[in-house]
Amino acid sequence: GRLVESGGGSVQPGDSLRLSCVGAGFPFSGAAFSWYHQAPGKERKHVATIYSTPTLTEYSDSAKGRFTISRNNRENTVYLQMTNLKPEDTGVYYCHRKNYATWGQGTKVTVSS
Fold this sequence. Notes:
- It is a single chain.
- This protein is mostly beta strands.
- It has strands at 2-6, 9-11, 17-24, 33-38, 44-50, 57-59, 67-72, 77-82, 91-97, 102-103, 107-111.
- The strands form 2 sheets. Strands 2, 4, 5, 6, 9, 10 and 11 form a 7-stranded mixed sheet that branches. Strands 1-3-8-7 form a 4-stranded antiparallel sheet, with no helix packed on it.
- A hairpin with a 6-residue loop joins strand 5 (44-50) and strand 6 (57-59).
- It is globular.
């Protein structure tokens, strides 16, 4: 299977972005997915997870209240809606199929004034 992320870009503090992750080559609807953030020079950290039951989600403390993870099984896509972006949200965001060694190539987000 494979995952392809998109939607990153350069924005100002307070702006919003929606990241997308399209999956292929595996049973998408039964899979759980996570988004991870890797800031420059730092380790990759968990941001959010969505399970096959789409109402079942988990968030890191920094993501709670600002980010929303969702999925569209008809389009094999997982989303990360990010609002009120902060400079510390800068980095590369990766999509991961939970419990599998399947990662996307990442999409870069830069938050700067």
